[in-house]
Design goal:
This protein is mainly beta. About 10% of the residues lie in helices and about 30% in strands.
């Protein structure tokens, strides 16, 4: 069996990536507000780019086309500060989970969730995954739930799965990736 030339395979992969970007762009066309984040690992290497947009109904969509992480299930959350630096531990400058309403942590918690809580993400054995989720607990427009408050916000990925109930962060382990969320024109 003859395998395709590397150039053909590369061209095919680029075409798939561009098609995904086109699909994302068409979904973003009706956005009332847009944002993005370059996601970095603890060594400072870029490992993914997040696109965020708020639709006219207030739903905020997050799409990360390629996220390079260790395979497995990881917690992902919006954090309260737009900083992805060191600190006492990796990315501790991002602060706690975004929680302007003072709720408890976890999508399965009767007294929660934090505005920044999100479903777990799963990275396949290849180490590169597509991540997409939506939330109505944050906004990209001015108001109480805006990710663009005085401190801004970041998106943080944790080493382990979030159990969706434990305080304060669902036993999701150390922070392994972070990206500052920036508004787009």
């Amino acid at each position: 069996m003859r395998l395709p030339h590397k150039h053909v395979v590369f061209t095919f992969l680029i075409t798939i990536a561009l098609c995904g970007a086109c699909a994302s762009a068409s979904r973003m066309a009706n956005a009332v507000s847009r944002a993005s984040a370059i996601i970095y690992d603890i060594n400072g290497a870029p490992i993914g780019t997040a696109e965020l947009w708020q639709d006219p109904n207030g739903l905020v969509n997050v799409d990360i086309a390629s996220l390079a992480l260790p395979p497995g299930t990881h917690g992902i959350h919006f954090h309260e500060v737009a900083k992805c630096e060191g600190g006492a531990t990796a990315f501790s400058t991002a602060g706690a989970h975004y929680n302007p309403l003072g709720k408890q942590h976890g999508l399965s918690n009767a007294l929660g969730p934090h505005a920044g809580d999100a479903p777990n993400i799963v990275i396949p054995a290849s180490g590169v995954g597509h991540v997409a989720f939506s939330t109505d607990r944050v906004t990209l427009t001015p108001g109480t739930l805006s990710l663009f408050d005085a401190n801004g916000s970041s998106i943080v990925v944790h080493a382990n799965a979030d159990d969706q109930v434990s305080q304060p962060s669902g036993n999701s382990g150390p922070r392994i990736a972070c990206g500052v969320i920036r508004a787009l024109p």
